[in-house]
Amino acid sequence: MTADQEPRRNIPRTPMTPGEIDAAHVGPATRLDGRVTLAEPDPLWPVVYATEAERIGTALAALPHRLEHVGSTSVPGLPAKPVVDILLAVPDSAAESTYVPALEGLGYGLVVREPDWYEHRVLRHPAVAPGIDYVNLHVFTSGCPEIDRMTGFRDRLRTHPADRALYARTKRELSGRTWEYVQNYADAKSEVVEEILRRAGRG
After folding, report:
1. For residue 83, is it within any domain?
2. Of the residues 102, 106, 133, 176, which has the fewest C-beta atoms closer than 10 A?
């Protein structure tokens, strides 16, 4: 891979335009055109993660991999969209044939492909449990710096109540606004995310 071909290393990630959001999706991107609904902390969230991690781990037993519960449902006491986010690290996230078919066998479908952002992929499984909208499986190549950022942010929120409260306030305030896409809501949180990561020494 030449320098011109290397994926962008834009940290922090820049807000996505509607065209970029649509281009990243496998099929049309789903519009929100409304507010984001947050749920209060639910003890079911880590249970769903554990169940799905076991299923995924079994399906990918022949492939070296790492699984982590990330996102707001991984932080006790934090409100969140009822969506469980799982991080999957594999030897090469661009090599979809090494993991996508096995995950499709579990009911996951590829919904996002971002070759210019760490070869990020997202697979989604709907309705895995009552009260859960879906599971998002974020796939990166092992060693990708975004893995440390995602887990580092989670760990900071788990262990620092003031940062957790700040993030919760930010989420509640932004969820009351109207957004074209859920990604726009996620991008709007970037400033406070970067602030917290800097305090964690990961900014």
Report:
1. yes
2. 176
Inside any domain, residue 182: yes
Residues 6+ apart with CB under 8 A from 180: 18, 31, 32, 33
Q: How far apart are CA 103 and CA 123, in angstroms?
A: 8
The domain of 116 spans 18-199
Beta pairing, strands 66-70 & 134-141: unpaired
83-90 and 134-141 as β-strands: parallel, antiparallel, unpaired?
A: parallel
CA 31 to chain centre: 18
Residue 2 lies in a domain: no
Is residue 167 domain-resident? yes
CA–CA distance, 141 with 77 (Å, rounded to integer): 30
The CATH number covering residue 179 comes to: 3.30.460.10
Per-residue pLDDT of the chain (203 residues; tens, 9 = 90+): 333 444 444 455 789 999 999 999 999 999 999 999 999 999 999 999 999 999 999 999 999 999 999 999 999 999 999 999 999 999 999 999 999 999 999 999 999 999 999 999 999 999 788 889 999 999 999 999 999 999 999 999 999 999 999 999 999 999 999 999 999 999 999 999 999 999 988 76
Rounded to two decimals, what is the model's pTM? 0.92
Nearest to 186 by CA among 32, 68, 66: 32
Count: domains in the chain: 1
